[in-house]
Design goal:
The chain is mostly helical. The protein contains 7 helices and 2 strands. The protein has a single domain, classed as Four Helix Bundle (Hemerythrin (Met), subunit A). Strands 1-2 form a two-stranded antiparallel sheet. The termini are close together.
């Protein structure tokens, strides 16, 4: 089964020089929001390589199960190759999470700035609060996604260890595969939810910039979300 879709990142916006007439709170809010986007660069950079590693591992797995029990040397060799790919996926997942965490920490700076908005910017305050809520939901969903993916990687690793044992039973292997499929279903579900929150966040950020009367140009920062 597919392990996950490509994950969408935060959308970027460039403020126009002619529009730099807002208050310091407006500009500081913009700076923090766009820095959060740049801090997710490493997160975005992991997406396609992660999918490619998953596809490479899946190909090895299919080759392994096509082998016969008297081809144990090849089974062990390919299982070790697959385990090495799991390790590479773990490293990329770590980079992904570090990037998401750094972006969230930067984003959290706008919470206090929203309280400094002028009284005539009540709409902007409401939009900022909605943006904070959406980002919190997005971040919480990522934490669940990360945990589910980490668990799935551990199960993958266990499977490749099992496949190297000559006394492995069909029942034991099938039980492990069922656990793996269940874990990746959770990953796919949370992946979809995360992408939905990302889309909602990008839309709400545009609404906030409009409420702040910031004249910005939006960059096409999103990737295809289906593998």
């Amino acid at each position: 089964m597919p392990k996950r879709m490509l994950i969408g990142g935060l959308g970027a916006a460039a403020i126009l020089l002619s529009a730099c007439t807002g208050t310091s709170a407006h500009e500081a809010m913009y700076d923090h929001l766009e820095k959060a986007v740049s801090l997710e660069d490493a997160f975005r950079d992991q997406q396609q390589p992660m999918v490619e590693l998953e596809e490479k591992e899946q190909k090895l797995y299919e080759e392994i199960i096509d082998l016969q029990t008297d081809q144990m040397d090849q089974i062990k060799e390919k299982s070790k190759e697959a385990s090495a790919i799991v390790e590479d996926r773990k490293k990329k997942l770590k980079l992904e999470k570090e990037s998401i965490d750094a972006a969230k920490e930067e984003f959290d700076n706008i919470d206090g700035l929203a309280k400094d908005l002028e009284e005539d910017k009540a709409e902007a305050k409401d939009e900022a609060e909605a943006l904070v809520e959406t980002m919190d939901q997005r971040y919480d969903t990522y934490q669940t996604l990360y945990s589910a993916y980490t668990k799935a990687l551990q199960l993958d690793e266990e499977l490749y260890d099992m496949l190297q044992k000559e006394d492995l039973t069909q029942e034991a292997m099938q039980g492990q595969i069922e656990k793996i499929n269940e874990s990746y279903q959770t990953v796919m579900d949370k992946n979809k939810e995360f992408n939905e929150y990302t889309d909602a966040y990008n839309n709400k950020k545009k609404e906030l910039y409009d409420a702040l009367s910031l004249n910005v140009e939006y960059e096409d920062h999103e990737e295809s979300k289906e593998s």
